[in-house]
Structure formats: structure tokens, C-alpha cells
Amino acid sequence: MSGAVHRVAARVLPINARGEVLLLQGQDPARPGVLHWVSIGGAVEPGETLAEAGVREMLEETGLAVDQAELVGPVHRATHPFSWDGVAYVSDNHFFAVRLDATPEVHFAGLEEAEVGNILQARWWTPQDLRVDGTAVTPDLPEIMAAAVGELLEGTR
To answer: Is the pTM of the predicted complex or chain greater than 0.70?
Structure first.
């Protein structure tokens, strides 16, 4: 993407004991009604580590507090181009996994102003179900999820 804003991002994949991953349904404000599922996370702020950004984003986007020591990873790194509100970005995404033994209630009270009304709901997904559904924000998200589940629950890395 020529002229795109480049950013480094921390993404968090909360995983429950059933191997499901908590994702958020969102839309680009420039394309209302075009819905997709995305991992929790966002840009790393100046002075933050990747893990600090992941913990902050987890709290802002879900209301769930996790300790930095609970994050596993990064378990994956991928570059994804995307647009948000008419601005093109290229995001260097660092994915962390975190195990949640309970199925906590998610709330959106900490969303940034631009996210309010554009992050619509949270849902637990298996990688296979998301692959079949076909509404992942990037086509590789189900595979990233599967690798994170394998690493966290099965120790396959």
C-alpha cells in the first residue's frame, strides 16, 4: 500500500479450555455494515513494549484484565494491510496468546472514541468455525488462531 501508515501492533488471542478464541466483530466506519471478526489488539504506543500494549488493548477492548506474565509469545507475527475510516495502514502484528480458564463477561466501556459503534460484539470461535464462516478480517486468522491454540493448550511449538 503506497502511502500507507505503517504501525507496529500487539494482538491478543484469549483462549478458553475448549480451544475457542475470543474475537471481536467490527466494521470500518467508512464501510458500515461490512462486518468482520478481528483479534483483540492495536497499535503499540510510544514507550510501550509489545506485551504492555497487549495487556492495555485487552483491557480497553474487552474490559478483561490480564497480567503481562500470563501472555505467551509472540506466537505469530504477520504483516497485514488494512484501511480504517479512509486511511490505509500496514500493520506489523505481533500475536500473543493468553489462557482464560473461565468464560468472562466482556464489556466495551474502555473503547476508544473511534471504536465505539464500530466494535459490535465479542464471541468465542474455534479456528475451524471461523474458517467455515469466512468473515475473518484476514484470511490467515483461523490458521493463526489454530497455531496459538496448539501452542497454549497442546504445547506444539
So the answer is: yes
